[in-house]
TrEMBL record:
<dbReference type="InterPro" id="IPR001597">
    <property type="entry name" value="ArAA_b-elim_lyase/Thr_aldolase"/>
</dbReference>
<dbReference type="GO" id="GO:0008732">
    <property type="term" value="F:L-allo-threonine aldolase activity"/>
</dbReference>
<feature type="domain" description="Aromatic amino acid beta-eliminating lyase/threonine aldolase">
    <location>
        <begin position="74"/>
        <end position="326"/>
    </location>
</feature>
<protein>
    <recommendedName>
        <fullName>Aromatic amino acid beta-eliminating lyase/threonine aldolase domain-containing protein</fullName>
    </recommendedName>
</protein>
<keyword id="KW-0456">Lyase</keyword>
<dbReference type="InterPro" id="IPR015421">
    <property type="entry name" value="PyrdxlP-dep_Trfase_major"/>
</dbReference>
<keyword id="KW-0663">Pyridoxal phosphate</keyword>
<feature type="modified residue" description="N6-(pyridoxal phosphate)lysine">
    <location>
        <position position="279"/>
    </location>
</feature>
<dbReference type="Pfam" id="PF01212">
    <property type="entry name" value="Beta_elim_lyase"/>
</dbReference>
<dbReference type="GO" id="GO:0006545">
    <property type="term" value="P:glycine biosynthetic process"/>
</dbReference>
<dbReference type="InterPro" id="IPR023603">
    <property type="entry name" value="Low_specificity_L-TA-like"/>
</dbReference>
<comment type="similarity">
    <text>Belongs to the threonine aldolase family.</text>
</comment>
<dbReference type="InterPro" id="IPR015424">
    <property type="entry name" value="PyrdxlP-dep_Trfase"/>
</dbReference>
<dbReference type="GO" id="GO:0005829">
    <property type="term" value="C:cytosol"/>
</dbReference>
<dbReference type="GO" id="GO:0006567">
    <property type="term" value="P:L-threonine catabolic process"/>
</dbReference>
Length: 429
C-alpha cells in the first residue's frame, strides 16, 4: 500500500503507527480523535448520544467576549481545518484550465487519483458533500417514485434541507440509527418494497454514513457493511430490483484510521462514495464522488443542473491533491503492530540508504519552509532524523521511552517534507 503520513498515538508511551494514504495533513486532526475519547472516558459518565441533538438557532455562535489576551481554541468542527503552507503553495502554483472542457489538469489528476485510491472507475470533484450526496441520490434514483433508505440520524436526513425530496423528487425512508451508527438489517430488508406493487414507491438506494457524525464519529463495522451489501446485492432480497449502495464517507478516512483498513476495502461493496476534502484532509472547499464510469458521467451531467460548474476549480483541487498518497513510499499497515515502523521504497530508483541520508540532512530550503523545531527561543533549528538503513528495501524507525510526543511530531514533519520532495523530483523526471 502506498504512503503518505498519518499517525495515531496508541498509548501514552507514544507507540505510534504511521498510516497510508492521506497525508501529513491528517495528523492535525486524527491524533486528537483517540486522545479525546480517552479524555472523555475519564470525565464523562453519560453514555453516548442516542437521540438526535436538535440544535437551536444559536449553534453557529462564535466566542462573544473574545479579547486579544484570550487564547481561543475552536473545536466546533473539522470543517474549520485550514490548508497547510505546502497546500497553499500548490494552489498558488497550479496550472489552470476550464473544467467544463475537462481541461483543468489538477482536477483531472485529483479525480483520477481519487478513483485509484478507492479502486473505482472514476471520480468527480464537487463543491460540497451536500451536493455530492444529492448527486448520488439523483444518479442512483432516476425513476419517478423512487425511495432511498437512510438512517434517521444521517446527515442526509437531518442536515441537507430535504434536498432528496426538494430537488431530486426522491422519498427518504428512515431507519433508526443505533448508537454505533449502524441500523437493523432485518428492518432494512422489511423496508425494501415489493416492486410489483403499483401502490408503493420503488426502493432504489440504501445510504450509510461512515464515520457517523451524529453517533459520535463511529466507524461502521466492516462485517455489518458486508452483510448490508449481501442483502442489497441479492435479487431474492430485493424483489428483483437493483438497489444501489452509497456511502456518505465525508469522514471515511477517519474510519479507515480507526479500523486500520484501506478506504478501498471499507467501500468495496459500495456503488458510490462521497468524501470531504475540506475536513480531515484540510483543503478549503470540496468533496469527491467516486463510482463507476456511467455513474460518474451521469453525476457530472447532473452537477451542471445543480449549478455546480466550477471552471478553474483546479486552484482548489491542487490543495486536495496534496493529500493523496505518495507513489514512491509505502507502509504495510497490517504489519505495524508496535513501536517499529518500516517505510518501504515503492520506487526502485530510490534506495533506502539514499532516503536515510536525506533524512539526516538539513537543507537551506527546508529551513525556509519552516521544517524546524517549535521552540522559538532557540531560533531556527533544523531537524536531523537518524533512521536505520542497511541493504534493505526499507528504512526502520524504532520508538523508545526517550522519544517524546513532541519529537514524534518532528519526525513526522521531517518525513512528510522529504517524501514530498522525492515525489516532486520523481514527478518531474
Ligand atoms: C460535513 C458533512 C457533509 C456535508 O459536507 P459539506 O461539504 O459541508 O456540504 C455530509 N455528510 C456528512 C456525514 C458530513 O459530516
Amino acid at each position: 500500500m502506498r504512503f503518505c503520513l498519518r499517525y495515531t498515538r496508541s498509548n501514552i508511551s507514544s507507540c505510534f503507527t504511521i498510516f497510508n494514504y492521506c497525508a501529513h495533513n491528517n495528523r492535525l486532526h486524527l491524533p486528537l480523535t483517540r486522545s479525546l475519547s480517552q479524555f472523555c472516558q475519564q470525565i464523562f459518565f453519560r453514555p453516548a448520544l442516542s437521540q438526535p441533538a436538535y440544535l437551536d438557532s444559536s449553534h453557529y455562535y462564535s466566542v462573544f467576549n473574545a479579547l486579544p489576551s484570550h487564547y481561543v481554541i475552536d473545536v466546533r468542527s473539522d470543517t474549520l481545518s485550514l490548508p497547510t503552507s505546502e497546500m497553499r503553495q500548490a494552489m498558488f502554483a497550479a496550472t489552470l484550465g476550464d473544467d467544463i472542457y475537462r481541461e483543468d489538469p489538477n482536477v483531472l489528476k485529483l479525480e483520477q487519483k481519487a478513483a485509484e485510491l478507492f479502486e473505482k472507475d472514476a471520480g468527480l470533484f464537487v463543491p460540497s458533500g451536500t451536493m455530492s450526496n444529492l448527486l448520488a441520490i439523483m444518479a442512483h434514483c432516476p425513476q419517478r417514485g423512487a425511495e432511498a433508505i437512510v438512517g434517521d440520524l444521517s446527515h442526509t436526513f437531518l442536515y441537507e434541507q430535504g434536498s432528496a425530496a426538494q430537488i431530486a423528487g426522491v422519498q427518504l425512508a428512515t431507519i433508526q440509527n443505533k448508537t454505533d451508527g449502524t441500523f437493523c438489517l432485518e428492518e432494512m430488508q422489511r423496508k425494501i418494497r415489493p416492486y410489483d406493487d403499483s401502490l408503493q414507491p420503488v426502493t432504489s438506494l440504501v445510504m450509510v454514513e461512515n464515520t457517523h457524525n451524529m453517533c459520535g464519529g463511529k466507524a461502521l463495522p466492516l462485517q455489518w457493511l458486508d452483510e448490508l451489501a449481501a442483502i442489497c446485492k441479492t435479487k431474492e432480497n430485493t424483489n428483483g430490483k437493483n438497489i444501489a449502495l452509497h456511502m456518505d464517507g465525508a469522514r471515511v478516512f477517519n474510519a479507515a484510521e480507526h479500523l486500520n483498513e484501506s478506504v478501498a476495502r471499507i467501500t468495496r461493496e459500495f456503488d458510490s462514495v462521497s468524501y470531504s476534502v475540506s475536513k480531515a484532509l484540510l483543503a478549503p472547499v470540496g468533496s469527491m464522488l467516486v463510482g463507476s464510469e456511467t455513474f460518474i458521467a451521469e453525476a457530472r451531467r447532473l452537477r451542471l443542473a445543480l449549478g455546480g460548474s466550477m471552471h478553474q476549480c483546479g486552484i482548489l483541487a491542487a490543495a486536495a491533491i496534496d493529500n493523496l498518497r505518495s507513489p514512491n513510499f509505502s507502509v504495510d499497515l497490517h504489519n505495524v503492530h508496535s513501536n517499529i515502523l518500516l517505510i518501504h521504497m515503492a520506487n526502485p530508483q530510490i534506495t533506502a540508504s539514499n532516503f536515510a541520508k536525506r533524512l539526516s540532512l538539513v537543507t537551506e530550503r527546508e529551513l525556509n519552509d519552516n521544517i524546524i523545531v517549535d521552540e522559538k527561543e532557540k531560533g531556527k533549528q533544523g531537524i536531523q532524523l537518524k533512521v536505520s538503513s542497511r541493504n534493505w528495501p526499507f528504512v526502520r524507525i524504532v520508538l523508545y521511552n526517550q522519544i517524546a510526543d513532541k519529537e514524534v511530531d518532528y519526525i513526522i514533519k521531517k518525513i512528510e517534507y522529504v517524501i514530498r520532495e522525492y515525489d516532486g523530483i520523481c514527478e518531474s523526471l
